[in-house]
């Protein structure tokens, strides 16, 4: 009886390995290539993952723009500058920010009032970029270098201990709206 059980487990393990290998091969074999236009559009978007555009993040919005399924003026965090860059990239006419999606605001961060926080983890679950850390029933805090200021953590907080504060432009915060363009070294003739 024990031998039959061990044999059955061995057969199931072998089948699981075989199935895993087949699925892995299929994933590699039928991988869809990334669209370079989507990547260029995504690089212009601010990566807040806030959903104000009506899509669950910047990459889905970029995909919709590339497929002519969404207008380029739906991203409040990207603002007018982002819309202009998208219009230039795509050869489209500039349109002002769609007011239905919100209004352009300065870069901001979430700040947890640790004296009030009850450690419910609702803000942790709402954060699309994992910028809030803390365990259940312990105080939470925001990793400011990761926070995009999307404001999605504010509404679920039952004790209203999260404030969104504007961030002044500094050497480390200025590039949040601009894609980083690698510079090519230039050789100087001697």
Automatic annotation (TrEMBL):
Signal peptide: none annotated. GO terms for biological process: electron transport chain. Residues 1-27 are annotated as: Hydrophobic. Binds 3 [4Fe-4S] clusters. Its main location: membrane. [4Fe-4S] cluster 2 binds at residues 117, 120, 123, 157. It comes from the Bacteria. Gene3D superfamilies: 3.30.70.20, Electron transport complex subunit B, putative Fe-S cluster. Residues 108-137, 138-167 form the 4Fe-4S ferredoxin-type domain. It is found in: Cell inner membrane. Its cofactor is [4Fe-4S] cluster. Residues 33-92 form the 4Fe-4S domain. One of its GO terms (cellular component) is plasma membrane. Its EC number is 7.-.-.-. It is an enzyme of class 7 (translocase). Keywords: 4Fe-4S, Cell inner membrane, Cell membrane, Electron transport, Iron, Iron-sulfur, Membrane, Metal-binding, Repeat, Translocase, Transport. Pfam families: Fer4_21, FeS. [4Fe-4S] cluster 3 binds at residues 127, 147, 150, 153. GO terms for molecular function: 4 iron, 4 sulfur cluster binding; electron transfer activity; metal ion binding. [4Fe-4S] cluster 1 binds at residues 50, 53, 58, 75. The complex is composed of six subunits: RnfA, RnfB, RnfC, RnfD, RnfE and RnfG. Belongs to the 4Fe4S bacterial-type ferredoxin family. RnfB subfamily. Part of a membrane-bound complex that couples electron transfer with translocation of ions across the membrane. This is Ion-translocating oxidoreductase complex subunit B. The gene is rnfB.
